[in-house]
Amino acid sequence: MKKILLAGTILILGFAGVIPQLLAEEQVNSLRGDHALDENSIEPEMKNWQLDRDPIARDHVKQPPLIPHKTQGYTINLKFNKCMSCHSWTKYKDAGATKISQSHFEDRDNNVMANVAARRYFCTQCHVPQVDAKPLVENTFQPLPTVK
Amino acid sequence: MSLKDKYKNLQGWLAGFSVITLVVSAFALGIIFWGGFNWTMEMTNTEQFCISCHEMEDNVYMEYQNTIHYSNRTGVRATCPDCHVPKEWGHKIVRKIRASNELLHKVLGTINTREKFEANRLELAQHEWARMKKTDSRECRNCHSFDSMDYTAQGRRAYKRHIKAVDDGQTCIDCHKGIAHELPDMHEVDASVVVGQKSK
Questions:
Q1: What is the ipTM metric for this complex?
Q2: A128 φ/ψ angles, rounded to the nearest 5 degrees
Q3: I need a labelling partner for B12 at 20 to 30 A (CA). Which of A13, B32, B74, B76 fits?
Q4: What is the pTM of this model?
Q5: Residue A8: its pLDDT value, please?
């Protein structure tokens, strides 16, 4: 009986203290990086939205064109769509903006609507403004020369 | 006692003081009354006063906190009265008297829920747009004026349209609607900036 108790105690002590300690000898890198706890992590560089510029060329066929200006504070809700105050058919000439494509007036059954279709209403779902950020992973994509 | 006697009594009472005492005390009373009046009016000209009504605090004040007039890179802030109350004394008094109508509707509870506020938002906004249009956006111009704008420092879109706006005699509010608060349902104003049919 005493021997069993002794063996049990040793086992419990082993699992509770010694074995995990041995395992911890291997360094584990957390998502936070290889930093001492009392050191500050490296601050990522602050990116600012790019200012107005010429339309950005598309990289592939049917790519939603990128937005070549800031869109901070531009409201898109049921009552109002700020983008449309320049890009609508009635406004684009005065604003010197790109006209919204006619494809955006079709619903999913290809019925042409009198106004922008609901499924195309939320512009920033596809069209996005840009910051000058380097790609995080390498990308070797090249557009086909025939449809460039 | 007839009115004439009362007047004579007052004359007698005043004769008891020297001219200097009378002038000085009239001067002092003037300062106290005028100062008090102006001080009270300035009390009603603060953001704290404006949002002491939940109608303002829960609706327009919340929306304004997301806009550039509340928080921006240079740390300059325009509060409620900067845009909604004229700076010049005469215009200010006229606006303050007109604002008594707002007290009436506070009592009537015209916009005391979000739903009621939304239902009335178009009318409220149109009143403010009309006021700005009429005064050539006077309150905007306390800070922003065409004369002190450097168009070359503006973005491509802004400088072209600002120069055109000067030539066409446009005023700020013609384009800059809904910059500090949410816009009302724009179906009735301009259907091309909203989706589909009226949402009701």
A1: 0.75
A2: -130, 145
A3: B32
A4: 0.77
A5: 66
